[in-house]
Specification:
By secondary structure, this protein is an alpha/beta fold. It has 2 domains: 44 residues, no CATH class; 189 residues, Rossmann fold (3-Layer(aba) Sandwich), CATH 3.40.50.2020. It is built from 10 helices and 6 strands. It has a 4-stranded parallel beta sheet with strand order 1-6-5-2, with helices on both faces. Strands 3-4 form a two-stranded antiparallel sheet. Helix 10 links the parallel strand 5 and strand 6. Helix 5 packs across helix 7. The radius of gyration is 18 Å and the shape is globular. The N and C termini lie far apart (51 Å). The protein binds zinc ion.
C-alpha cells in the first residue's frame, strides 16, 4: 500500500470518527461495507421488479405508440414526499455523486439478472453543457457509471448531445412538456452507434417525454435497438 493511500485512509477514518457516515435515506449510522445507503433501506424501498418482465411493464406500456424500446427497467417506484424522492434529490441537487453510483450498481445488478441484457453500450441522457457546468456533473452519468461498473462496460457520452437549454419541466402540462423536449437531442456520431443495442439511462422517468425524445433521436441511426433504465419510475 502506498504512503498516499495509507494517508488518505487514515484521514478518512479520522473523518468518520467525528462525522460517522449515515444512510442518505433513513439517517442511521452505516455499518462497515455499507456505502451511502444502508442494507435495510435497500431491502425496504418500493421495488418495481420490472426486470422480471422487461418487455412488458409500466414503462414499456407508457411508451407504446410514442417510441420503440426493447426492454425497460426501473429500480424503485417514486412518489412525491417519499424516500425515493429524497434519494433522487440527494443525487441531483445535493452533490451526492457516490449515491448515484451506488444506486447505479444496484440497477446494474437487477439488469444482469434479467433476460436478453446483451447491450453494446450505455448512454446517459445528456444534460445541456451549461447545466452540467453549473451542477458540476450529470446525475444520469453517475448512474450510468454505476451500471457500467457492475456490468464491466464503458459509458458512451459523446455520440449524443443536448442542444437546447430547456426550461424547468415541473410546472408544465404533459403536451407542453413534450413540445419542450422535442428535438432537444442530437446524434453527433452515428457511426459509433450503428447496429448497436443501447441502454439509455436517466435518474427518473415520470411522463417519459425526455426519454421518448432521446429514443426517437437514437432510432434515426440505422440498426439501433434501444432499451431504457432509471433509478425510479412514477407510481401510477
Ligand atoms: Zn437506511
Amino acid at each position: 500500500m502506498s504512503f498516499t493511500k495509507k494517508l488518505t485512509d487514515a484521514v478518512s477514518a479520522i473523518g468518520d470518527l467525528f462525522f460517522p457516515p449515515v444512510c442518505a435515506c433513513c439517517g442511521t449510522h452505516l455499518f462497515k461495507g455499507e456505502v451511502e445507503i444502508c442494507k435495510m433501506c435497500l431491502r425496504l424501498l418500493p421495488r418495481t421488479h420490472f426486470e422480471k418482465k422487461p418487455h412488458d411493464n409500466q414503462i414499456s406500456i407508457m411508451m407504446w405508440g410514442r417510441c420503440k424500446i426493447e426492454l425497460a427497467y426501473a429500480l424503485y417506484y417514486y412518489k412525491k414526499g417519499e424516500r425515493v424522492q429524497q434519494l433522487l434529490y440527494e443525487i441531483k441537487y445535493r452533490g451526492n455523486r457516490r449515491l448515484g453510483e451506488v444506486l447505479g450498481q444496484e440497477l446494474g445488478k437487477i439488469i444482469t439478472q434479467s433476460e436478453n441484457n446483451g447491450f453494446d453500450c450505455i448512454i446517459p441522457i445528456p444534460l445541456h453543457p451549461r447545466k452540467k457546468a453549473m451542477r458540476g456533473y450529470n446525475q444520469a452519468e453517475l448512474i450510468a457509471n454505476g451500471i457500467a461498473t457492475f456490468m464491466g462496460m464503458q459509458v458512451e457520452v459523446s455520440s449524443v448531445i443536448r442542444n437546447i437549454h430547456t426550461l424547468s419541466q415541473t410546472r408544465k402540462g404533459r403536451f407542453e412538456r413534450w413540445q419542450n423536449v422535442e428535438n432537444i437531442f442530437r446524434v453527433t456520431d452515428p457511426d459509433q452507434l450503428r447496429n448497436r443495442h443501447i441502454l439509455l439511462v436517466d435518474d427518473v422517468i415520470t411522463t417519459g417525454s425526455t426519454m421518448e425524445a432521446c429514443v426517437n433521436q437514437l432510432s434515426t441511426v440505422p440498426g439501433t435497438k434501444i432499451s431504457v433504465a432509471s433509478i425510479a419510475c412514477a407510481r401510477l
